[in-house]
Design a protein that fits this description.
The protein is of the alpha+beta class. Helix content is 42%, strand content 12%. The protein is elongated and about 135 Å long. This is Penicillin-binding protein 1A.
């Protein structure tokens, strides 16, 4: 009997200890959850954190026609709403990652119990909500088992809070917006764009299955890695199997989809590639100043790379594309001509400079190179750095056929790039000032200097319309007034010149009596000299400033021939004034800026100014029309591009002006129709590098063809509605612009001939 009592006593003792241990363990679990929720094991997200998770959203650059043309980001993430997700993507996600997603409240008890019993061999039983909690608030965490347990507890707590805070649909969207799909794609929208070049809503079932399959291990199942093609295909098909198992698709559909290959339209996004790269960089510099002047309500600055701003720009994605295509199409041909023209020439590509000047140019190029910068940072001496430029090195170089791998001495690569022609091109609407296209160079990755907003170059004869506008306004003359094209000398001392000035015409000829319209059409220098002699240089400078030119203009008679450096942006803005009936509208590139919630935080107001009256503006337009009908830009009417033959054959009115600097280092063309003004500059980086002859180095050959190719593409696109109509003629026009009248004849059956009206000879 004593033994029996002892056994009963021992059992009771074990029973009591078991329940004590259970109670302590249960209490410990409760305390663990409480301590975790109170932040004892690290900060837990607050209500505000859950309401507004730090999602590191990219700023989008949006064109006027609604296309995202670029982003500013640390992580390339652009949120998508649940309504924008295809249902087969949502169902594939749930079927593969969390079959009981709609049944639990953040934690799948059945799955968790199975994971505990099997010690995690069949996975960690993380629900979609738990994975979202991990991605949003603490990442992967520690691999140490104790810390891992604490992390899991925090994950459960956050998941439960998320379920209380958001609907199931919102959790799905949040999750897909957070996932890193590698290759710079964070979130499903970036992934769809980079891998498939489409929006999420346009993803097919098999494409959706591919992205869901990547979630298990994005790096391992990276579809852009050709060596893992079979692995990725198998994983996609596993997802299709899960979709069939859960009734999302039929077995027949699954088998049909499994046979499809993986097709990518892989287009990685970067700051140096894609559309409007030069414009995007110009915009970035602008936004760096903007964030300092437009603070948040709490007084802090917006983060351009994390705050998900939406910058609605004036750029038209199609016009931008056509501009970039036109630049490449023409310069690809012109570059071949330049290489051919400089082949075998001493000191090529430089012309008329001394060997010492050439050495200075090359030395400066070496010091500006990335090679010099890196070697200097690594403590290399100047002698060591200079020697390295003569050692053949493997490198990639830019060509118009694509990047080329080659073995080349760095010094030879510098000389190669000195041969490369550069360009700046901008198109804008004269009435609104909206910039529609911006091409700052031929390739941003290799040539980062922006020749639209940064590079001021000598404008040549494209400056002459400013002079003619001044003369028409101040002297009360018209395009039909006549003047004598003859040898002309401005004496020393007049208008401050320190020597006699005798400008000559580019062809060396004098035409005698001609109208002002003919003089501008043929860029007659002697006429320009006579006009500036009448109005004075200061009046012309004042006119240019009123037209929006901010570059420094010397108050000298030589500006009549364009001896002044101005940017493409300023030139197009100034010329547009004439197309806009004398009203200057400052070129603008932003329509509005919104925060990530769609609230408008900035909407720039156009800057306008009346410069000349409608009659004067229209007279200048008619003068510039003469350039394209019978002057240096006439090839736009019948085609051709000088050394290259292009078929333009424009029949509509076009106001334009070519320009060429004296040594052919700068070629310009400004062309306008009523609702679009476009300016182009072409030349080498160094002014000493250029064509040796004017036939190839003039603006009509270097720049005008780009305008023609661009406009031909624009006219072919009916969505753009680029005008072919005449410029609007002012009511009661008081300046004579129709310079040719039929000869009076008695015989009405005779064919009339055109003769200039010689009655007006006021100059």
């Amino acid at each position: 009997m004593a033994t029996k009592k002892a056994n009963t006593s021992d059992f009771s003792l074990y029973k009591r200890k078991f329940w004590q241990l259970f109670a302590y363990g249960f209490l410990g679990v409760i305390l663990l959850f409480l301590f975790a929720s109170w932040g004892f094991f690290g900060k837990m997200p607050s209500f505000d954190d859950l309401e507004n998770p730090d999602s590191n959203v990219a700023t989008e650059i949006i064109s006027s026609d609604g296309v995202v043309i670029g982003k500013f980001y640390k992580e390339n993430r652009t949120p998508v709403k649940y309504e924008e997700l295809p249902q087969h993507l949502v169902k594939a996600l749930v079927a593969t990652e969390d079959e009981r997603f709609y049944e639990h409240s953040g934690i799948d008890a059945k799955g968790t119990l199975r994971a505990v019993i099997r010690l995690g061999r069949d996975g960690g039983a993380s629900t979609i909500t738990q994975q979202l909690a991990k991605n949003l608030f603490h990442g992967e965490g520690s691999k140490f088992i104790l810390f891992r347990v604490i992390q899991k507890v925090k994950e459960w707590i956050i998941a439960i809070r998320l379920e209380r805070q958001y609907t199931k649909q919102e959790i799905i969207a949040l999750y897909l917006n957070q996932v890193d799909f590698v290759n710079g794609a964070v979130g499903i929208r970036s992934a769809a764009k980079i891998y498939m070049n489409k929006e999420p809503k346009d993803l097919t079932i098999e494409e959706s299955a591919l992205f869901v399959g990547m979630l298990k291990n994005p790096s391992l199942y990276n579809p852009n890695r050709k060596k893992r093609a079979q692995l990725v295909l198998d994983r996609r098909n596993t997802v299709l199997g899960q979709m069939e198992k859960n009734g999302v698709i039929s077995e027949a559909k699954k088998e049909a989809l499994k046979k499809l290959p993986i097709k990518l339209d892989f287009r990685p996004e970067s700051h140096s590639e894609g559309s409007a790269t030069y414009f995007r960089e110009y915009l970035r510099d602008y936004m760096k100043k903007w964030v300092k002047d437009h603070l948040k309500e709490d007084g802090t600055e917006y983060d351009l790379y994390r705050d998900g701003l939406k910058i609605y720009t004036t750029i038209d994605s199609k016009m931008q594309q056509y501009a970039e295509e036109a630049v490449i199409e023409h310069l690809k041909n012109l570059q071949k001509e330049f290489f051919s023209a400089t082949k075998g020439k001493e000191n090529a590509p430089f012309v008329d400079i001394t060997p010492e000047q050439t050495k200075q140019i090359m030395m400066q190029a070496k010091k500006n190179s990335e090679r010099w910068r890196k070697m200097d940072l690594n403590g290399k001496s100047e002698e060591e750095i200079l020697k390295s430029f003569d050692v053949p090195t493997k490198m990639k170089i830019f060509t118009y056929e694509g990047e080329k791998d080659t073995l080349m001495k760095p010094i030879d690569s510098i000389l190669y790039y000195k041969h490369m022609l550069q360009t700046g091109m901008m198109a804008m609407e004269p009435r609104s000032g909206h910039i529609k296209a911006w091409v700052g160079g031929v390739n941003y990755k290799y040539f980062q200097y922006d020749h639209v907003g940064q590079g001021a170059r000598q404008v040549g004869s494209t400056f002459k319309p400013f002079l003619y506008a001044t003369a028409i306004e101040q002297l009360n003359i018209s395009p039909c007034d006549s003047i004598i094209d003859s040898y002309f000398t401005m004496p020393k001392g007049k208008w401050g010149i320190d020597a006699d000035w005798s400008p000559r015409n580019s062809d060396g000829n004098y035409r005698g009596t001609i109208t002002l319209q003919k003089a501008l059409a043929n860029s007659v220098n002697t006429v320009s000299a006579k006009l500036i002699d009448r109005v004075g240089p200061q009046a012309v400078v004042d006119m240019a400033k009123e037209l929006g030119v901010t570059s420094t203009i010397p108050v000298q008679p030589s500006i009549a021939l364009g001896a002044v450096d101005i940017t493409v942006e300023q030139m197009v803005g100034a010329m547009s004034t004439f197309a806009n009936q004398g009203v200057y509208v400052k070129p603008t590139f932003i329509i509005k800026i919104e925060d990530k919630n769609g609230v408008v935080i900035d909407q720039p107001i156009p800057v306008t100014k009346d410069v000349v009256n409608k009659d004067v503006a229209y007279a200048v337009v008619k003068l510039m029309e003469g350039v394209t009908t019978s002057g240096t830009g006439a090839r736009l009417k019948w085609g051709g591009g000088g050394i290259m033959q292009y078929d333009y054959s424009f029949g509509n009115p076009i106001a334009g002006k070519t320009g060429t600097s004296q040594n052919n280092s700068d070629g310009w063309f400004i062309g306008m129709v009523p609702n679009l003004a476009t300016g182009i500059w072409v030349g080498n980086e160094d002014r000493a590098a250029h064509f040796r002859d004017t036939r190839r180095g003039q603006g009509a050959t270097m720049a005008l063809p780009i305008w023609g190719l661009f406009m031909k593409k624009c006219y072919a696109d009916s969505d753009l509605d680029v005008s072919k109509e005449p410029f609007e003629r002012p009511d009661d026009l008081k300046i004579k612009v129709d310079c040719w009248v039929p000869k009076k004849v008695v015989d009405t059956t005779a064919v009339p001939t055109d003769e200039p009206n010689m009655d007006e000879f006021g100059l």
